[in-house]
Write a structure and sequence with these properties.
Number of domains: 1
Largest sheet: none
CATH architecture: Orthogonal Bundle
CATH superfamily: Globins
Shape: globular
Strand content: under 5%
Number of helices: 8
Oligomer: single chain
CATH class: Mainly Alpha
Bound molecules: protoporphyrin IX containing FE
Radius of gyration: 16 Å
CATH topology: Globin-like
Helix content: 55-70%
Structural class: mainly alpha
Length: 133
């Protein structure tokens, strides 16, 4: 006899909550983005992309992009992502460095490792629109 329990229910079951909700929604993502930009701006290899720092508008955009990517009820309507990065000649190595800072943020904020790995995997999907160098 086959039984479906919480432990073996399909990952798409009705009880599943999004990663967005699991980590604490927009408030948690906002804290993560602030921590993340602190790391980015402290890294000379990446800070030079942001000579004027990173303002609240830009931070809010990133929160929304990530919130949407993580399955939240967020819809990004800011500048086109590919267009925003096109002229910047961002390399794969710089993208990797950025992703490593995000991983450091998630670790520092206590996001469980398996969840953090899934988040990094989802963000890695944006590589083709960001890397232009
Ligand atoms: C998955 C990774 C990334 C996401 C989701 C992302 C998201 C965004 C968004 C939403 C914007 C438009 C916001 C705005 O114009 O205010 C933007 C612009 C920008 N991004 Fe990214 N980005 C990513 C990776 C990177 C990387 C790796 C770099 C550099 C190392 C970078 C550098 C920039 C710069 C310099 C701008 C223009 C900022 C400005 O005009 O003030 N981004 N990004």
């Amino acid at each position: 006899m086959t039984m479906t329990t919480a432990a073996n229910a399909p990952a798409t079951g009705v009880w599943e909550i999004s990663i967005y909700e699991a980590i604490g929604g927009r408030a948690a993502l906002t804290a993560a983005v602030d921590n993340f930009y602190g790391r980015l701006l402290a890294d000379p290899e990446l800070a030079r992309f942001f000579p004027d720092g990173v303002g609240p508008r830009h931070r809010a955009y990133l929160v929304t992009v990530l919130g949407e990517a993580l399955g939240g009820r967020e819809r990004y309507r800011g500048p086109d992502l590919a267009a925003a990065h096109r002229g910047l000649s961002i390399t794969d190595a710089q993208f990797d460095r950025t992703a490593a800072h995000l991983a450091g943020t998630l670790d520092e904020l206590g996001v469980p490792r398996d969840l953090a790995d899934r988040i990094i995997g989802i963000v890695a999907g944006l590589r083709p629109v960001v890397v232009t160098g």
